[in-house]
C-alpha cells in the first residue's frame, strides 16, 4: 500500500493553495472531516493516507491526505510513504471516540491497512470484538503489540474488561528478560540429563533423575539454615561449541517454568555490550535491574541501586585511568602507580560489596513480602573465561561480591560458565565443577534429526562416525542435507568419515572429521571460483572485494584483474551461509566455524593459505591506519614470525583490533599478544611464550596480586622461569614483594643488584623504576641520604635521555621526600614548579595523573599551577576527588559563614536548574544552615561533573577570598586524589584520608575477618 508520488504531489499542491488563500483568517479548530479521519487512523500504527477509509465508506477518497497533513509524521523513502499520527493527536482522537463500537468500526473499515502483518491493530480489534487477550505464552514482540493496543484502548471512552496495563507491562519486561535464554534453546534440546540433574541438585530443585551425591559438605544445597562457610560456586567448563550456554539456558528456563515460577534469578552474559567483565559493578547493576523486573513492588529501590552502580562505574573508570597512567612512566610506576593500584582495588571492592549487600537486603524483603519460603537465588554468569586467570583482580572482586551476597542472602547459588576453576588467593571455598563432554549417542542422533537428517539410520551411522561434539554434528547435518536423499551421495559422505577410535586419538579424529565435513560443505558451492576462495579465505578476518583481488585471487589460482570482477565474486561469497556481514562491502567467516577450522591442519590447502597470509601482510603493510597495522601484525604472527621483529611494527591504539586474536595463534605468538594486550594466559601459552613475553605476562599477574594484597602468592609466581633477562620488570617486583613480606634488607639488596644489572645492560627505563623503588625503600628504612641520592640520579638519567615527564616524576618524588621534621624540600618544590611551567601544554596533556599530582604538591609554592592544571587536564572526576572537594567546601563554609552565599552561587551556577532542593538539607544545598554538609555538596559536584562544568567550578573556587586556605587546599587535594603515594600530607583538609596504610599483605580475603 503506498501513495503514488504524482498523486501525492497534486493533493499537496491543492492543500498548499488552500492554505495560502486562507491567510490570517485560517481557523485552528479541528473540522468535522479532519476529526473523522483522525479517529479512523488513531488505532493504526501507520497507514497509507490515500487508502484510509471512514466508517461506512465503500472506497477510499484520499481525503486523509488533505485533512491529516499537519497531524502526521511520515516514514519511508522514495516511492513508498506511510503516515503515522503524532502522539498528541492520536491521544486526542482516542479520547474523542464515541465508544468501543466506534473504535471497532474504524478498525474494520481499514482492515487492508494491516491485514498482512502482525501488530497492535489485530490485538485491539480482538479486544473490541469481545476476545480478551491472554498474556501467558506470548512472545516479547506479541506482548509489545498487546501492550500498545491496551494503552490505546484504555483511552477510549466506555472501554472495559481489558487486561491491566501494568500487568501487561510486567509480562513484557519478564518476557524480554527471558528472551536471551529462549534464543539459546530455539532448537530442540538434546541430552545432558545428568548435567541438568547436577544443576538442580546444586540449586535444591527436585531432579528428574538420580544425581551423583555431593562429596563436599560445603556444597550442601539446603535452602535454609545458617552457614559457617560460603556455598561453593558451580563452574561449567568444556571445549568451545560444546553447549555450555545452551545447558545453562535450558536449566534456568526449566527451573522457572516447571518447578518454581517465582524463583529469583539473574542471568549475566558478559558478551552483552552493556556489561564489562572488567567492571564487576556493571554485573551488580544488571542483577538489580533483573530483580526489579521480578519484584515490581521493589522496582524503584532496585532501579536506584542500578543507577548508583552506573555512577560507581564512571568513577571507577576514572580511577582505573589514573592507575594506568601512573604505570606508564618508570618514575611513577613503583611508588605512585602501585599505591594507587592497591587503593583502587580496595575502594572498588568496598564500593561493590556495599552496593551488592543492599541489593541482597532488598531481595530478602522482596521474598518475604511474596511469602516465599527462603528460595534459592540463582545467579548465572556466562562467558566468564576472560576473567579466569591466576591473580585476576576481577576474579578477586567477584569472590568478594559472592561472599557479600551470601552474608545477607544465604540462598545464593552461583553458576559460572567458563574455564575450569582457576586457583585464586581470594577463593574462600573450592568450586564444584561440571565438565561437558560429547553428547551421548542417543542425544547425537536427536541433534542430527533436529538439524534436518530425517532418516534415522543415516543419523545413527553419522553419529557413530562423527561423535557427540555439537558443532561436528551440525556440520555433519549440513553436509548430509546438501548431499540430499540420494543413497549414493549419503553413502559417499559416510564413507569419507574415518571410523572413530578411543581415548588418545579421539581429539585427532574430531579435528579430522570437522575438516572433512567442512570440505564436503564447500564442495557444494556451485560457483567453482567462489569454492576455490572459500577455504583459503578462512585465514582472513575480513574479506572485501579489494582483498579478493589483491590477496586471495592469485594464491587460489584465479585471475581477477578488475575490482568489478572481484565484486562479482564477493557478491557470490557473501550469499553463503558460512559467512556473515562485517561492515559495508565486507564479510567474514562465521566465528564458530572459523575458530574450529583454524586449529586444524590445512591439508592440501596449507601452502595456499600461507601464501594468502603472506600477501595479506604485504596488502595491509602498504596501508595507513591502526586497523591495517593490526591486520598486518595478526598475519605476521599467524606466519610464526619472530615476536621481537613483529613487536617493532606495534603502534599504540591497535590493541582493540586484536582483542581475542590469541585463540587463532600458536602459543608463542599468543604470548606476545597477551603481553601487549594484558590479561592472563593459559598454561600452554605461558610454556610456549618467549622469555621476554613470559616475563611481561607474569609481571602483570604479580602486579595484580600485589594490588589485591596477596604478596605470598606473588612471591610464588616470582620463583618461576629464572634467570630473568636484565631488563625484566620482574626484578623491581621481586624487591617490592620482598618488602611487603617484611624482608626489607633483602628487598633493598635485590633492588640494588637489579639496578646495577639494568645499568650494565643499558636498560634505562628499568633503571629509573628501580632507582625510584630503591629510594622509597631507603626512606622507609630512615636512610634519607640514600633516598635523595637515588632520586637525583634518576632525575639526571631522565634529563639526559630527554624524557621530561620521567624527570618530572623523579623530581616529584624528591619534592615529597621528607627531611626529618623539617617538612618537604622547598628547593625541590621550586624546581618542580619551574619544570611544570616550562613544559608545553601538549606534553602535560599526555600525563594528566602526573601533572595533577605535581600541581597538588606545589600549590603553596605556585598558586597559579592549580588554575593552569585545571585548564590543561582538568580535575579528576572520580568519587574520591569529589568527596574530597566537597568536604573542603563544607569545612570552609562552616568556619566562615560569610563565604556561604558566594559558595552557593558557584555551586548553583555549575549544577544548573536540576540542583536538588531538599528541605532538610544542610550547607550549600539550601543556604539556610550555618554549616555545609559534604554529602549534599558532593551531590552538587556530581551534577556539575555530569554537566561538564566541574572544572569551571573549581577555577571559580580558586578565586574565592578564603583566609583559612581551606578551599585552595581542598582543590589541591582533589587534584591529587588517588595519587598520594606514601607522602607526608600537608594538612587534614588537603588530605582527609591521612593515615591509610597500603603496606603489608593487603586486605583479608573476602568473607574473612
Structural account:
This protein has 45 helices and 9 strands. 46% of the residues are buried. The chain starts with a helix and ends in a 34-residue tail after the last helix. Helix 20 packs across helix 22 and helix 42 runs antiparallel to helix 44 (950-958). The chain is globular. Strands 4-5-6-3-7 form a 5-stranded parallel beta sheet, sandwiched between helices. The chain is mostly helical and 1009 residues long.
Write the layout of secondary structure elements.
Elements: H1 5-22, H2 32-41, H3 63-67, E1 72-75, E2 82-85, H4 87-96, H5 100-108, H6 120-128, H7 140-153, H8 165-184, H9 193-203, E3 234-237, H10 244-259, E4 265-269, H11 280-294, H12 299-328, H13 330-369, E5 377-382, H14 393-408, E6 412-418, E7 432-435, H15 441-450, H16 456-466, H17 470-483, H18 487-496, H19 506-522, H20 528-534, H21 545-552, H22 563-574, E8 579-583, E9 586-589, H23 591-597, H24 606-621, H25 626-638, H26 643-647, H27 655-658, H28 667-677, H29 683-688, H30 691-707, H31 711-718, H32 730-740, H33 744-761, H34 764-780, H35 784-800, H36 804-816, H37 826-838, H38 841-844, H39 848-858, H40 864-872, H41 879-895, H42 900-911, H43 934-947, H44 950-958, H45 966-975
